[in-house]
Amino acid sequence: MKIFIKTYGCQMNERDSEAAAAMFSARGHEVVDHESLADVLIFNTCSVRDQAERKAVGKIGFMKKLKKERPDLIIGVMGCMAQNRGEELFKELPHLDFVLGTGQLHKLADIVDSIHDDRRAQVALLEPGDEVLTGLGAHYNNSIFASIAITRGCNRYCSYCIVPYVRGREISRSIADIVDEARELVADGTREIMLLGQNVAAFGLGGNINPPPPDHSPFADLLNELCAIEGLKRIRFTSPYPSYFNDKLIDAIAAQPKICRSIHLPLQSGSDRVLKAMNRHYTASQYLEIVDKLRSKMPDVAFSTDIIVGFPGETEEDFNATREMMNRVGYDMAYIFKYSPRQGTVAAKLEDDIPQEVKEERNQVLLSDLEKRTAETNRKLLGSTQEILVEGVSKRNAERWSGKTSTAKTVIFTPGPETTVGELATVRINRVTAVSLFGELQPTPLRGN
Ligand code: SAH
Ligand code: F3S
């Protein structure tokens, strides 16, 4: 069969879709990149904001016409919205053939095969307490980049967030399992690995939400083992909850040049009052302490973050605290979200009292601050020497190549005869614009492999 998978939402969903593609391909099915070519359409969905669900429902609804023309077509939904809405989705979208909740990836190919044989609709949902780690390891994309899911689920219950309800309890894979997967990837040509989890820094803590003592961090142990893999050039991770950045983790990151100097540290709000209402267990000043510690050990580290504007009761003063905090940290990048109530969460019981226009305006203010800062950060890099991981021919200009710095900035440069995809190279930044960096290749790498 020919399979088409459309992915919505986060990198974890991208990863699940990739693993699904690998499983189908291992069974002799073909993965295609357009719905019109496919016998099976799979929508891997997101629930984190209402808009994400509406978008997927709209798109799947639109497939009804296609199903009328081709009744043999198999249409299924998986991921967080599948888990969140369950069987009820058949009512809204009667042309659906299956609903596959989270943590059920290992059942996907069997379900599709059985529908192909008997055309009977199927549902498989995650039951609380039934969290499993199967079906996470298969890879499909052949590139120098790969992602590895190291944990599943989340135990933090931030008051606005639906993830703990739809992704289930937090469980961690074993270090040995992850290292094996990484070794295989590197043997196949992977040079940069992104470690994924809803709360990666809580890796290996058995779901305990109390941050560990300063000298204990299974996540640091995992990073150290991965850094020892020869041929692996870079490691990134997302997302860590700030409170788990203890001395052991900070020191491990600082000691390993393979760990990228670009850290995503979700802040959500700069107001202690709002943080408390969000059930985020840190204050603005505790967050800053972590940022300052990381910066003192790694002066070149770049930060990115997630922010929610318009959380219930967010005053102008609360918003200004967020704005000030963002300026103080000086993020290179930020995802700014307008609060959207999610049924079943604690915050959904509060009145969604910030008008849409105010959310929009606060969003715009933060985005424009951010834009100014990015332009300034780029200007500061002019004349500096940077190590980049070479990615290949630039999308815009075939004579130029591109690569990324450890801080995740793309640099455009003219390749030399020795330039190789997946190798580290040294460039001097000789031109910058508000959005791009241009560099000149330098003869010696900053460090070995
Ligand atoms: N730690 C997770 C976060 C998942 S949700 C991870 O990165 O895997 C991603 C981001 O969406 C959150 O950090 C938060 O900023 C935003 N978000 C979550 N629930 C939201 C809601 N109800 N409304 C608006 N934004 C939300
Ligand atoms: Fe959501 Fe908070 Fe977990 S944002 S994914 S409940 S850390």
Descriptive account of the structure:
- The protein has 449 residues and is an alpha/beta fold.
- The chain has four domains: 2-124, Methylthiotransferase, N-terminal domain (Rossmann fold); 142-260, 2-Layer Sandwich (Transcription Regulator spoIIAA); 297-380, Transcription Regulator spoIIAA (2-Layer Sandwich), CATH 3.30.750.200; 385-442, OB fold (Dihydrolipoamide Acetyltransferase, E2P), CATH 2.40.50.140.
- Helices cover 34% and strands 21% of the residues.
- It has 14 helices and 19 strands.
- It has a six-stranded parallel β-sheet with strand order 2-1-3-4-5-6, sandwiched between helices. A five-stranded mixed beta barrel has the order 15-16-17-19-18. The chain has a three-stranded parallel β-sheet with strand order 7-10-11.
- Helix 8 runs parallel beside helix 9 (218-227).
- The chain is globular, with a radius of gyration of 23 Å.
- The relative contact order is 0.08.
- The mean pLDDT is 95.
- The structure holds S-adenosyl-L-homocysteine and FE3-S4 cluster.
- Residues 10, 48-49, 160-161, 163, 198-199, 239, 266, 268, 306, 308, 337, 339-340, 342 line the site of S-adenosyl-L-homocysteine.
